[in-house]
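sanity check this:
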Amino acid sequence: MKLLVIWMLNALALLAVAYFVPNIHLAGFSAALIAALVIGFVNMLIKPILVILTLPITILTLGLFILVINGLLFYAVGNWLVGFEVKTMMAGMLGALAYSVISWLLAAIFIDDKKD
């Protein structure tokens, strides 16, 4: 149940990102659900490989290259999916940053991690 709530909150965060960040467009809530699912899978499967492969430049930039990796993956998903469009790499980087902040805020507000 908690996984479904997190998925819905991430889809809402993606809708908010499409509203606030220019050059990012969503066709509707169903496209947001699919895009949130694909972004989650890409972050789970591909991002760790990219982080390991780019570890020297990540260390050299004191971790700031992770923002580039996140933006690249967000941009790639936006170009791959129908109904979710990210037009530029800079919009991808800004969108990925906004998406993580908004989804973190929504999770902090709506999900109770305290065990009774």
User: Anything to note?
Assistant: DSSP finds six helices and two strands in the chain. Residues 58 and 65 are 5 Å apart (CA to CA). Residues 2-110 form one domain. The mean pLDDT is 93.
